[in-house]
């Protein structure tokens, strides 16, 4: 019997085509960030003796269910079946044992790199290896593993350019990242597959180039293809849109921010750690932007008088309580292991007065850092994670000035806590506010000037803080320059935000007038299908739902999708009715 190969053209040890089909589907679900990762369970049902099937099941349990117990059990099953495994499958097992059993991220990343050296077309190994280097805060390694033979073997393939683009952006190569992301969009379009990770990489590149309005427009235009994403990718891409609005900072943006948080970012899967991470980071940034920088030893004052506060303070507190309720449900075993997540959760617990939760989490952070199995990683965590956590406790409790001493020695190395530059940026904003509270004017001005240069002088909040710090430092000329920049940005963004709001109003007005008849036609067709063939009712109703969603924001491409869905339902109805009238 000829050996079976998978979607990447790589040999596998199973003789079950059904098992390989399930594994291929799982790999594609991972690459498209879909919501059907459980499909891998069919692989071990089809072939209970295939080691790689169990290894991929371990990935599912670890990544989507956060179940270390089930993941370890799957790896144990895979170890018992190693006798028939291919060399690549054996290398996979070593990588996952390093990750899940030993907790050695660096070793696991190196083993995935070894897989790629022998099998450069293995996009799943590339995806997992890149993410591990990402968690370790080493973007240069994310980029390195995608170069050379790997780049040659995957040129023009869907998903590859998106992975490269994100690595380029994390390494600070923004122009190259943007160009690569656009190339990735073309590849996925030609292959007719969704690629939300490439959309995500493009959002990163535009954000750090200060192209805020362009980012909002582009990402909202792509959002129609995110409907089948897992909760992380769906909420995270909307989180990026929220960041564009937050940095633009007009009154319309603040209103939009609340809508996005309540309807797009929080609530899809409240138990998911990545959804919680996004919600925590956005709530903290939201608070920091709504607070005027205090003078030394003074309490901060809200900026509601300036029209850029959080609006309904009660509603904002309700958001915090809801998010922290679900974070707290993770228990001690569910926190203290993801450094960035734990820093943000710690801020939330302290700021909301949940002292017992904060104390337990801080102690867990310290113990996990000290117990890290690899010496290099242990040193990073004890020198960066622990002191910054100590500073956050003080900062969130209102003692911002005293937090400087803990944060100052750690903030430049925050990459070691994981997360992207955008996700970690909230920590740097905390440090900035601590500097301002402590009266460290020169240091605060240098950091603010650096941030303004890096973001192409596009963020009003940075100009506002600069004007305030320059005034406290007595630098009158610089105060005027910063205020002029703030005024120019505010006027420009106000016009752009108003144009967006007007376009949304036009779409809302245009939608209801032309669409009721079309919607009634879809529903009538679906009713005919259900009446003539009850078994087809769910399919018909799904088509109706897709069509209805397509016209919710009536962009031209979505109208096309809506009409296609309507035609499909109508055709199905006609066929079923005709068959029912002709056949006994």
From TrEMBL:
Gene3D superfamilies: Tetratricopeptide repeat domain (1.25.40.10). The keyword Ligase does not apply. It comes from the Eukaryota. The chain crosses the membrane at residues 560-578. Signal peptide: none annotated. Keywords: Membrane, Repeat, TPR repeat, Transmembrane, Transmembrane helix. Belongs to the TTC38 family. This is Tetratricopeptide repeat protein 38. The lineage of its organism: Eukaryota, Sar, Stramenopiles, Ochrophyta, Dictyochophyceae.
